[in-house]
TrEMBL record:
<dbReference type="GO" id="GO:0032259">
    <property type="term" value="P:methylation"/>
</dbReference>
<comment type="pathway">
    <text>Cofactor biosynthesis; (R)-pantothenate biosynthesis; (R)-pantoate from 3-methyl-2-oxobutanoate: step 1/2.</text>
</comment>
<feature type="binding site">
    <location>
        <position position="80"/>
    </location>
    <ligand>
        <name>Mg(2+)</name>
    </ligand>
</feature>
<comment type="subunit">
    <text>Homodecamer; pentamer of dimers.</text>
</comment>
<dbReference type="GO" id="GO:0015940">
    <property type="term" value="P:pantothenate biosynthetic process"/>
</dbReference>
<dbReference type="InterPro" id="IPR040442">
    <property type="entry name" value="Pyrv_kinase-like_dom_sf"/>
</dbReference>
<comment type="similarity">
    <text>Belongs to the PanB family.</text>
</comment>
<dbReference type="GO" id="GO:0003864">
    <property type="term" value="F:3-methyl-2-oxobutanoate hydroxymethyltransferase activity"/>
</dbReference>
<dbReference type="GO" id="GO:0008168">
    <property type="term" value="F:methyltransferase activity"/>
</dbReference>
<dbReference type="GO" id="GO:0005737">
    <property type="term" value="C:cytoplasm"/>
</dbReference>
<keyword id="KW-0460">Magnesium</keyword>
<dbReference type="GO" id="GO:0000287">
    <property type="term" value="F:magnesium ion binding"/>
</dbReference>
<keyword id="KW-0808">Transferase</keyword>
<feature type="binding site">
    <location>
        <begin position="41"/>
        <end position="42"/>
    </location>
    <ligand>
        <name>3-methyl-2-oxobutanoate</name>
    </ligand>
</feature>
<keyword id="KW-0963">Cytoplasm</keyword>
<feature type="binding site">
    <location>
        <position position="108"/>
    </location>
    <ligand>
        <name>3-methyl-2-oxobutanoate</name>
    </ligand>
</feature>
<dbReference type="Pfam" id="PF02548">
    <property type="entry name" value="Pantoate_transf"/>
</dbReference>
Amino acid sequence: MYKNIQNILEMKGKEKITVLTGYDSTMVALCDQVDVILVGDSAGMVMLGYEDTSSVTMEDMIRFTTAAKNGRKNSLIVSDLPINSYKTENDAIRNSLKLIEAGADAVKLEGGKEVAEIIKSITEAKIPVMGHLGLLPQTAQKYTVQGKTKESAIELIEDAKIITESGVFSIVLEMVSSQVARIITEKISVPTIGIGSGKFCDGQVLVVHDMLGLFEKIKPKFAKRYLCLSDEIRNAVKSYAVEVKEEKFPSIEHEFQMDESEYTKLREHID
Ligand code: KIV
């Protein structure tokens, strides 16, 4: 049985929560030891080759969610509601239901007090919601650290309290100064999941392509690389291409043979 919302809530203050993004069944099956797989709209960049998340559609997120569900055994699946899919309460509920039908256990959306009513209506429809504060990639003009001044910090803390009251079961804090992430984590009852927000959050999330060293376009400071898969892949592809050109691949162990007597009969027929 895979993790549920209650399991995640109970981890606050006891055990750090591990989250990785995942968009396809093969990768999700490999990463399924983390607590949560986030089908993020970062798929727009790492899977679809867009510059940002602004062109990601509901159809894209449904397809990625289905693929993630097909690979998971243990992790909770949270899927992003893409930009423009939660403008009204009706849109938000209808589109959240589509992601749940595709295999998500919960949905995530970006914003503070301005989306409080939307969050409330989704949770009233019995769909768990993860919030997302700090840097909001769907609308950000620039990727800068959030909560660096007293005023902006107070606003972030207020937003965190408001969306917690609206019913989120956890909140992603993206590129929030470590001190503010710590205060939010201490002040709210649900777990915070940090990305570039320091060690005091209740859990951490990374984009799987960043942490495996697969995505080379952007290298955020916070995205620690645990592997450099892009080099390994390039080397493997080079070896494959050389072996094919030099007729070293395929060799006998990669072939299928016809029965010798059948082959003799075939040759006689052809010749
Ligand atoms: O889309 C995404 O992958 C995200 C994470 C960066 C938190 O929202």
